[in-house]
Amino acid sequence: MRIGFVYDLRDDYLAEGFTAEEVVEFDTRETLGHIEGSLIRLGHEVERVGRGQQLARRLAQGQRWDMVFSIAEGLQGRSREAQVPAVLELFDQPYLFSDPLTMALTLDKSMAKRVVASAGIPTAPWRVVASPDEIDAIDLEMPLFVKPLWEGTGKGCDVNSLVRERKALPGVIRAKLERYRQPVLVETFLSGREFTVGFIGNVPDVHVLGVMEIVLNARADAEVYTMTNKELSESRVDYHRADDAVGEQVVALGRAAFAALGCRDVARLDFRCDARGNPYFLEANPLPGMHRTHSDLPIIAGLMKVTYDELMAMIVTAGCQRLSIPQQPG
Ligand SMILES: Nc1ncnc2c1ncn2[C@@H]1O[C@H](COP(=O)(O)OP(=O)(O)O)[C@@H](O)[C@H]1O
Ligand SMILES: [Mg+2]
Predict the structure, then answer these.
(1) Which of 9, 82, 172, 173 could be disulfide-bonded to 103 (CB atoms 3.0-4.6 Å)?
(2) Would you identify the CATH topology of the domain 126-188?
(3) Is the pTM of this model over 0.85?
(4) Which amino acids bring their CB within 6 angstroms of ligand 1?
């Protein structure tokens, strides 16, 4: 197939003056190389299109591909991950991964929690705080976890996010409101084991890739899979297959959440247990990171003895089957 490759490259934005933290959700040259190399080895022809605006320009000029593979996260607002899929739909261009509704729904962690909760999937009690006047009304029990409402890659999930004392809560919330310029999600802190589970396919044929437990070692920021722990995961995090009873529970809940959120082709869902060992939905990632050795989904694949190319082939096949597009060589 001729595949159009759409992405937000960190270096492009750094060159335009954005800070390292502002671009942390975006992808590195290395990740682009991993994806492109794999698609080529699978027999496809890959054209690098660039970011959403470049895609829109080309589509408006009449250019089309057999399929678009977009990992673009978008720059602004709570629908930023929906922007590229929406443009693709507008121009009737077939593409992999979830549609605009699911992309926007899952980026806003409160919206995603509402939908999974209504499907009977446990998720920790929470409040959304858009302005400091709302802080006094928070009636949740301590300890709490404070994170930006529509970020990813651990952005804004740092050592200050875990708040044990009520008197410290206003300061943490104010700092995050100011720094991330968006509402914050204040949630019951879940102190137990943490898992992430990958699925590939489309309802009703959704296959679990694997479920992995995330274990922080002594060098890591304590208790939270923070942005820094993720960035330095090679030295701070141990990843294990989770084949025990709780892992199975996470797979069942994850499968239900994948369907409730309307995910397509692939998604990775995060769960964490409370002190009693019961798992709760944290958030869903319909655009999971795809760095070959560093991102959670390829790490899950590795634990399951699935190679990166096999993982990519499974994702592309899921999308082609959904769209009834034959995967002829490029
Ligand atoms: N309510 C919570 N209780 C305990 N830890 C949490 C909670 N929410 C998030 N975390 C920690 O913060 C990390 C990042 O949060 P997550 O919601 O997955 O955001 P991101 O989109 O940045 O991955 C999680 O992997 C987990 O370690
Ligand atoms: Mg996460």
Answers:
(1) 82
(2) Dna Ligase; domain 1 (3.30.1490)
(3) yes
(4) 124, 145, 147, 151-155, 157, 187, 189-190, 194, 224-225, 270, 272, 282-283
